[in-house]
């Protein structure tokens, strides 16, 4: 169906999202940090990027800023539970201007699938 | 200046010093008057002489070895002239008045620079200043720029004034240093009066009590602010035992600790107590005895502010911690919720007993984790990390809707009474959903406090503060005040102090998260408002919500 890049530093979140989307028929590539995600983005072609906003080394904002420069960039869904200093809303405030959609953790499976479907349909 | 005004050329016709001149000079020195500053007593005499004799110039001239020095001058700027040209040098050689009606016509003076120069002296009358032991120290003299005569009345006046000058000189000499000290003392006394008035005015302007204590430990003086502080009528405090007014925690008043202010308690005349801060002072009084006093500050307001600031800081710290923890939990709840849902979706709806039980277990995990997600949401609401949008709303209308929806949260025995003041109209910049949540939380708490029956009164009125209210902790301005009063069991001070802390609850485990009032606190803070509580055991509780009124054109 679609090639999806998933960037999140939390292993549990990656496993959940990956399992759900794989079961829905998508191909999911995982990265545990914004830096690793950027490497994968430079090397391959994705239909959708799902990125956490707050990560220790290279955060979601770097990913969003990189993609902004790309022609024919994939759609981006930003997800965040916030960090200890920045709230989910503040992170989303940054993300909203750059990402195509946002979801606050913990979200329901159905909400994620609906959001992904919507983004892929628009891009298709 | 003197040299040019009084050129020393053209000596007068007087030759040689008068007899016993050395003794005369010694006598003059004895009076210690030469080159002293002007003194009112002598200035008055020359002014009198000029007025009474109707002359433009009058002088008290003291004849020194080679100059005449003026102790007092009226109508003349020069401090002294050379003795060689002095008329007075002639006058002191006799014991009577020397009169020169027209100096131009007098062979002794017609060539004198005082006559030919710009001083233009024509008339001179000088009465010698004769000491009791017969020395003429100088003269009191009257000068005019036109020729004239001295009648007997003028002569008598001049003689009397000369006697007065000598009298003053005698007093001055007899008193010696004291003569100056008296004049100095009068000035000092005036300065001191001014200082006292200044200090008294400043003490009375201060909010602090300034008191002095006599040797028996009784109030010797207390400023007006102090009388007001302790509840005295003006003047009533004098003689009251100090021990009945203040007690300080650190009773040891050694010198090392004097500078430090100490905490204590004050008692007003009506028996009420208030916290004070005392700075003790010690000095040596006019009699050389050690004296005691104190500056007392009423710190009621400061203590209240400190407590409020402490509570604010504590809640802010709790909010940060709770917010941080909540965000971590969000990331951990994601796999619990997501993977449980995934597993549930995988399991067949029907199956073996074990499969059915597994399904039920997973459903319970999902249900619990969703409840946990709700708790986290509330914590974030308190921590105000997720800020909802604030919009200007018709406040009484929005409050009315919020009140209408709380009925179903209350036990049937609880009656809701709603009092909206007619003057309470206007706009507030708030979030309607949050107001509903805050009112619901307050209603649920009140319902618990009333054990199923009672009255919940919700009032709305308008508060106009022309100046900031320290007791309420509000800035000046227009405020909506919602008071939510229940007829329940009330709270003790301990509970009252903690109710806004997250997870503080008096309800049994499982019946409350302890977040309702924390959220209310956070919400009101975000609206630039305030929530306060007034409660006592057995008297119910009243929660006051202050919301700033948004100015409308």
Summarize the structure.
The complex is a heterodimer of chains A (124) and B (553). By secondary structure, chain A is of the alpha/beta class.
Task: Give your account of this protein's structure.
Chain A has one domain: Response regulator (Rossmann fold, 3-Layer(aba) Sandwich), CATH 3.40.50.2300. In chain A, 46% of the residues lie in helices and 20% in strands. Chain A contains 5 helices and 5 strands. In chain A, helix 2 packs parallel to helix 3. In chain B, 41% of the residues lie in helices and 24% in strands. Chain B is rod-shaped, with a radius of gyration of 48 Å. Chain B has 553 residues and is α+β, with helices and mostly antiparallel strands. Chains A and B meet through helix 1 and helix 4 of A and helix 10 and helix 11 of B.
Layout: helices, strands, pairs:
The complex is a heterodimer of chains A (124) and B (553).
Chain A: E1 3-7, H1 11-23, E2 27-31, H2 34-43, E3 48-52, H3 60-69, E4 75-80, H4 88-96, E5 101-104, H5 109-123
Parallel strand pairs in A: 1-2, 1-3, 3-4, 4-5
Chain B: H1 2-5, H2 21-30, H3 40-53, E1 57-63, E2 67-74, E3 80-82, H4 87-91, E4 98-100, H5 113-116, E5 123-130, E6 136-144, H6 152-175, H7 177-205, E7 209-213, E8 219-222, H8 224-230, E9 246-248, H9 255-258, E10 262-267, E11 273-284, E12 290-298, H10 300-346, H11 353-383, E13 391-394, H12 395-404, E14 413-420, E15 427-430, H13 432-449, E16 453-465, E17 477-486, H14 493-498, H15 516-526, E18 530-535, E19 541-548
Parallel strand pairs in B: 14-16
Antiparallel strand pairs in B: 1-2, 1-6, 2-3, 4-5, 5-6, 7-8, 7-12, 9-10, 10-11, 11-12, 13-15, 16-17, 17-19, 18-19
Helix pairs in contact in B: 3-6, 6-7, 10-11, 11-15, 12-13, 13-15
């Amino acid at each position: 169906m679609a090639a999806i890049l998933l960037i999140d530093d939390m292993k549990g979140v990656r496993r959940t999202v990956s399992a759900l989307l794989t079961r829905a028929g998508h191909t999911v590539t995982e990265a545990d940090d914004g830096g690793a995600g950027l490497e994968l983005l430079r090397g391959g072609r994705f239909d959708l990027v799902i990125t956490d906003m707050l990560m220790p080394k290279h955060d979601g904002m770097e990913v969003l800023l990189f993609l902004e420069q790309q022609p024919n960039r994939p759609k981006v869904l930003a997800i965040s539970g916030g960090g200890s200093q920045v709230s989910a809303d503040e992170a989303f405030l940054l993300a909203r201007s750059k990402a195509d959609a946002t979801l606050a953790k913990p979200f329901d499976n159905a909400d994620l699938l609906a959001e992904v479907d919507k983004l892929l349909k628009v891009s298709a | 200046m003197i040299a040019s005004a009084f050129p020393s050329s053209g000596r007068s016709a007087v030759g040689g010093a008068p007899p016993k001149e050395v003794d005369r000079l010694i006598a003059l020195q004895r009076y210690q008057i030469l080159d002293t500053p002007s003194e009112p007593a002598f200035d008055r005499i020359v002014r009198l002489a000029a007025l009474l004799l109707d002359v433009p110039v009058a002088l008290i001239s003291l004849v020194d070895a080679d100059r005449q020095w003026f102790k007092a001058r009226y109508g003349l700027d020069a401090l002294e002239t050379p003795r060689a040209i002095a008329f007075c040098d002639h006058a002191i050689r006799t014991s009577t008045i020397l009169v020169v009606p027209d100096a131009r016509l007098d062979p002794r003076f017609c060539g004198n620079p005082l006559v030919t120069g710009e001083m233009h002296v024509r008339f001179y009358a000088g009465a010698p200043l004769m000491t009791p032991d017969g020395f003429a120290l100088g003269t009191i003299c009257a000068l005019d720029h036109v020729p004239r005569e001295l009648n007997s009345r003028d002569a008598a006046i001049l003689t009397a004034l000369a006697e007065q000058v000598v009298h003053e000189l005698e007093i001055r000499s007899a008193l010696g240093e004291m003569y100056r000290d008296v004049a100095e003392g009068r000035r000092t006394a005036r300065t001191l009066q001014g200082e006292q008035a200044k200090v008294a005015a400043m003490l009375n302007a201060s909010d602090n009590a300034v008191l002095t204590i006599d040797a028996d430990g009784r109030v010797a003086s207390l400023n007006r602010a102090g009388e007001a502080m302790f509840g005295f009528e003006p003047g009533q405090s004098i003689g009251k035992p100090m021990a009945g007014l203040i007690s300080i925690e650190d009773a040891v008043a050694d010198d090392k600790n004097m500078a430090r202010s100490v905490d204590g308690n004050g008692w007003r005349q009506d028996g009420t107590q208030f916290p004070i801060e005392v700075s003790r002072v010690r000095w040596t009084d006019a009699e050389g005895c050690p004296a005691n006093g104190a500056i007392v500050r009423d710190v009621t307001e400061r203590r209240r502010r400190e407590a409020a600031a402490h509570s604010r800081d504590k809640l802010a710290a709790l909010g940060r911690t709770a917010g941080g923890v909540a965000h971590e939990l969000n990331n951990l709840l994601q796999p619990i919720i997501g993977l449980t849902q995934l597993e549930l979706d995988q399991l067949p709806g029907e199956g073996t007993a074990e499969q059915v039980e597994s399904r039920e277990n997973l459903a319970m995990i999902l249900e619990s984790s969703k409840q946990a997600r709700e708790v986290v949401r509330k914590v974030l609401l308190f921590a105000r990390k997720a800020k909802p949008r604030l919009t200007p709303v018709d406040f009484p209308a929005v409050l009315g809707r919020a009140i209408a929806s709380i009925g179903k949260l209350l036990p049937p025995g609880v009656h809701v009474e709603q009092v909206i003041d007619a003057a309470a109209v206007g706009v507030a910049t708030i979030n309607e959903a949050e107001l509903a949540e805050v009112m619901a939380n307050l209603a649920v708490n009140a319902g618990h406090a009333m054990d199923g029956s009672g009255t919940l009164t919700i009032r709305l009125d308008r508060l106009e503060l022309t100046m900031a209210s320290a007791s309420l902790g509000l800035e000046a301005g227009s405020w909506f005040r919602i008071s939510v009063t229940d007829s329940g069991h009330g709270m003790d001070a301990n509970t009252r102090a903690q109710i806004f802390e997250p997870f503080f609850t008096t309800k049994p485990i499982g019946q409350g998260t302890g977040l309702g009032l924390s959220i209310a606190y956070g919400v009101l803070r975000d609206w630039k408002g305030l929530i306060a509580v007034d409660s006592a055991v057995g008297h119910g509780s009243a929660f006051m919500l202050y919301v700033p009124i948004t100015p409308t054109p």
